[in-house]
Amino acid sequence: MENWYKEAVVYQIYPKSFCDTNGDGIGDIPGIISKLDYLKELGINTIWLSPCYVSPGDDNGYDIADYRTIDPVYGTMEDFKFMLSEMNKRGIKLLMDLVVNHTSDEHEWFCESRKSKDNPYRDYYIWRDPVDGHEPNDWKSNFSGSAWEYDETTEQYYLHLFSKKQPDLNWENPKVRQEIVDMMKYWLDMGVSGFRCDVINLISKDIENNVSGDGPRLHEYIHLLNREALSPYDAMTVGEVWGLSPEESLMLTHPDREELSMVFQFEHMGVGRTGGRFYLGEFEPDKYVEVLAKWQKGLNGIGWNALCVENHDQSRCLNRIGNTDKYRYESATMIATLVYMMQGTPYIFQGQELGLINPVFHSLDECRDIEALNAYPELLKEFDEKEIMRRFSGDSRDCGRAPIPWDASEKGGFSEGEPWLKLHDRHREINAENDLKAEKSVYNYYKEIIKLHRENKTFLYGDFELISNKDAVSVYKRYDKENSYRVVCNFCADKRELDFVIPADSVILSNYPFDKEISELNPYQALIIKD
Ligand code: TEU
Ligand code: CA
Q1: How far from 330 is each of 23, 252, 472, 488, 522, CA to CA, in Å?
Q2: Does the pLDDT of residue 2 top 80, yes or no?
Q3: How much is the average pLDDT of 484-489?
Q4: SS3 assignment, position 27
Q5: 398 catalytic residue (yes or no)
Q6: pLDDT of residue 202
Q7: Which residue among 42, 328, 416, 525 sits deepest, i.e. has the most Cβ atoms within 10 Å of its Cβ?
Q8: Is 240 a catalytic residue?
Q9: Cβ–Cβ < 8 Å for 202, 162
Q10: Which residues have CB under 8 Å from 51's CB, separation 6+?
């Protein structure tokens, strides 16, 4: 199919937290295989698998020590190939995570690179002399502290935009580019259908001019990956890029430029923040919808949106922008309706289809994420421990990474052993088994939304228009020559008057029962209307 990525519905699996089959407390590939029927039933047709390659696990696999081997904690290459064939059988494609801004410091390339200045792998990474006995510049790592680490052996610093166990690759070196192309082909030859490209806009830098990302050769490098590896396989890509405008994203995704299929934009995830990570303020629903609408308009007809609510770097949306108590079902289904009825490829993060919530972290020993652990000493200067734990329970990356509760048993059916990270606290009530059984459940609503999205050409390809967006009530339209639909959402826990009346027989889906005309919205009500 031409542009098959536009008809993909992607489910993100964070393997460590998905399903454990051997009792070591860590999810694994046999666990994924055991849930493929569950995913097929949900209606998705593509899986994005977060890294499962050999890794010391400093950043849960985003620090790769061997790009071509499955980490034994997840299984063997045979397990992986079997998983792929079981996916194929069910019509599910697989996207791998391409993490090529950096490797692990335990990658063979880096082990060689740090040995001597004339080692053949020296220029695979970014080395600089000290300046006045200090770091070459003042760049900060995304995980706190300097982005430069001094290495005694050769008396130089290496660059790491993330943890010091994640040295940045030197893309200026043509050998590095060739290694990456070959590695991509290796997975594509095995039957993988594409990649989610980790912090892909960081691969081009201009260090001497203080440019740490979006550098001058970014488009050249991505075009190369496209020509050499992706295009020949009709592979799909989604780039993870932070802070780009719709115009810049069009550059990366314009079909004529032959770069990426689509990019994630995270502008809406910043709505309501008062600062960076761990600084959440009051959520502003109108702003959220406004940002999404801006991207719908900005890419329409040329680029393509990746529709994303949650991922493994975010807390659960119900804690931030929905409701975790009385209106958990209503707000979870409203958010799904609002976002996934827009134009673009839906991405559903594991557990989102169950309306999962954040765990509550009481002390640092319950936390695992390097970003939070590294930030802790800094935060202590400003807050006491209790306040930091409150912030971690609302905004640390561990929130979304909590293991999936498959049933109401003690460990949620995730593992027979001790899970590597605690489950959310209400897992006896909020779990997959309960949701599958219940007549009214987030899972069952997701099934309906996914079906509608996949089967209806107007929702797939139709234009978007924001009709109104005020006081937490938004109305938008999706239309083409044949059909026109309106999506109406109430983003708050109060009832809302409508200034128009919706006949019951025009409603094709709602998260509330309806039998007569509607002139008022219930808390977190969502409606899809055929005009
Ligand atoms: O994340 C990129 C990124 O910059 C942020 O999400 C970052 O994790 C931080 O939380 C900002 O506050 C990607 C991956 O999604 C993430 O899991 C990895 O840790 C990171 O790259 C490094 O590979
Ligand atoms: Ca396991």
Answers
A1: 35, 36, 15, 13, 9
A2: no
A3: 98
A4: coil
A5: no
A6: 98
A7: 525
A8: yes
A9: no
A10: 60, 61, 62, 64, 97, 99
- Candidate of 50, 67, 162 to mutate for ligand 1, largest count of ligand atoms within 8 Å of Cβ: 162
Dihedral (CA of 423, 429, 435, 440) sign: negative
Residue 288 CA to residue 469 CA, distance in Å, equals 10
Residues having C-beta closer than 5 Å to ion ligand 2: 20, 22, 24, 26, 28
Pocket of ligand 1 (CB under 6 A): 59, 62, 99, 142, 162, 198-199, 240, 242, 277, 312-313, 371, 397
Instruction: Work out the mean pLDDT of the chain and round it to a whole number.
Output: 97
Query: Can you read off the two tokens belonging to residue 86?
Result: 């079981």
Protein residue closest via CA to atom 23 of ligand 1: 62
The owner of tokens 């997701």 is 446
223 has a pLDDT exceeding 70: yes
Residue where the block lists tokens 């959520």: 283
Q: Identify whether the C-beta of residue 84 lies closer than 8 Å to the C-beta of residue 190.
A: yes
β pairing state of 66-70 and 53-54: antiparallel
Tell me which residue has its CA closest to atom 12 in ligand 1.
277
Q: Which residues contact 60 (CB under 8 A, 6 or more apart)?
A: 16, 50, 51, 369, 401
pLDDT over 80 at 1, yes or no: no
Q: Strand, coil or helix: what is 40?
A: helix
> CB-based burial of residue 425 (10 Å sphere; 0-12 exposed, 13-18 middle, 19+ buried)?
middle
Q: How confident is the model at residue 3 (pLDDT cuts 50, 70, 90)?
A: confident
Q: Tell me which residue has its CA closest to atom 10 in ligand 1.
A: 313
Residues 59, 97, 198, 395: which is the catalytic one? 198
Residue 422 CA from chain centroid, whole number? 21
**Three-class secondary structure of residue 2 per DSSP:** coil
DSSP output for 345-405: EEEEETTGGGT--PPPP-SGGG---HHHHHHHHHHHTTS-HHHHHHHHHHH-THHHHSPP-
Cross-strand pairs, 463? 479
Cβ 318 vs Cβ 270: under 8 Å:
no
CA of 8 to the centre of ligand 2 (A): 29
